[in-house]
Write a structure and sequence with these properties.
five-stranded mixed β-sheet; alpha+beta; 19% strand
């Protein structure tokens, strides 16, 4: 499968999505990519691109680090300098980059939603790099990162995939073959983390799920009904609408190369924590019963969201970037539409019966 994917779009924008070999599960030094992002933001190369009308953003994740650039189609030649900008940083400001990254991590650790999710993942996958969180980086000390660690990462810098929307551009660089670690064992249990100065608690319940190479379509449909449809999803209706116990309640399914996970979250006051926790578990169990009306709602919601995401060049790039990243068929989303058109109740209820492990984390005052 090609590592470069090119798509057309009606707008005058040119968007390039680059997946680098610096994800949480494949970097030699944990947290290095967080520091590199700051070095890049302050580098002369990136600043020069910004001066010429190129907007650049970075996103750390488990499997990769994403560099997303957007500019006018007439600026395509300028992007030839992107790879050069990524491989040249000023190591004299490494301490400053580490301090900034450490502050960002500490802020994430103090956020109840991020912390609860991070603790739930750590409990669910304690022996896997997937069991950490790319923003919270639990147990990681960024001050241990040395200049030689950065040099090695830049010497080995390569891309897993490049997705271009609205033009034709060569940013340079070399491709890399991705290898995703697998998760052998899952944990069950619960942890309660106290964070001072907080008003609300966040409850996160993490379940193991299929990777992007498994029954991702089934899990996407399952998550849509459970907590991915906003105000009409089961978690929101059961916890907030019917009982008024939470500020928010939703779920997310994250399919990755080596694993997938489903996480249900709700924010509530301390006196309601136990009740909301039980409601999350019971509502997830209730997915063993799905009506024809539920199926129709899933179909409409997902087809509509796919259409909305493709309206912007950024959305199109981000949506389709998983195809070259994971070596998926180019008609991946056409296959998903076909799956939705033929969606059956059993496609969802089967998933509910297989959620045998879960880990609960509560973060708050």
């Amino acid at each position: 499968m090609a590592k470069v994917m090119k798509l057309s779009h009606w707008s005058e924008s040119l968007v390039v999505d680059v997946k680098l070999n610096l994800g949480l599960v494949n970097e030699d030094v944990p947290g290095l990519s967080r520091v590199l992002v700051n070095l890049w933001k302050w580098s002369k190369g990136i600043m020069e691109l910004e001066k010429n009308g190129v907007a650049t953003s970075f996103n750390n994740s488990w499997d990769q680090l994403t560099v997303l650039v957007k500019t006018h189609r007439g600026n395509s030649s300028i992007l030839k300098g992107l790879w050069d900008a990524l491989t040249k940083v000023d190591l004299s400001i490494l301490d400053r980059a580490i301090n900034e990254a450490s502050t960002q991590v500490n802020v994430a650790r103090e956020d109840t939603a991020t912390r609860a999710m991070a603790e739930a993942l750590r409990g669910l996958m304690p022996d896997s790099p997937y069991g950490n969180h790319p923003e919270a980086l639990l147990g990681v000390d960024l001050s241990r990162i040395k200049p030689e660690d950065v040099r090695k990462a830049l010497d080995n810098l390569a891309y897993y995939s490049i997705t271009v929307v609205g033009g034709d551009v060569d940013i340079g660089g070399s491709p890399a073959n991705a290898k995703w670690p697998t998760v052998r064992d899952y944990g069950d249990g619960e942890v309660n983390v106290k964070l001072s100065g907080k008003v609300q608690n966040t409850i996160a319940v993490a379940y193991p799920a299929d990777s992007i190479y498994g029954r991702a379509f089934n899990y996407m449909a399952f998550n849509t009904l459970l907590g991915g449809m906003g105000l009409i999803s089961r978690l929101y209706v059961e916890i907030r609408v019917k009982r008024g116990l939470a500020y928010y309640a939703f779920s997310t399914y994250i399919p990755l190369g080596g694993v997938g996970f489903l996480i249900a979250l709700a924010g509530t006051r301390e006196k309601y924590v136990n009740e909301v926790k039980e409601l999350i578990l019971k509502t997830t169990e209730s997915m063993s019963m799905v009506t024809d009306n539920d199926v129709e709602m899933i179909k409409g919601n997902q087809k509509g969201r796919l259409t909305v995401r493709t309206e912007s060049p950024e959305g199109l790039a981000q949506m389709y970037s998983i195809i070259p990243l994971y070596g998926l068929p180019e008609d991946y989303y056409s296959r998903y539409i076909s799956f939705l058109s033929n969606l059956k109740n059993s496609d969802i209820t089967t998933i509910a019966s297989e959620l045998r492990h879960h880990y609960v984390a509560v973060a708050g005052p």
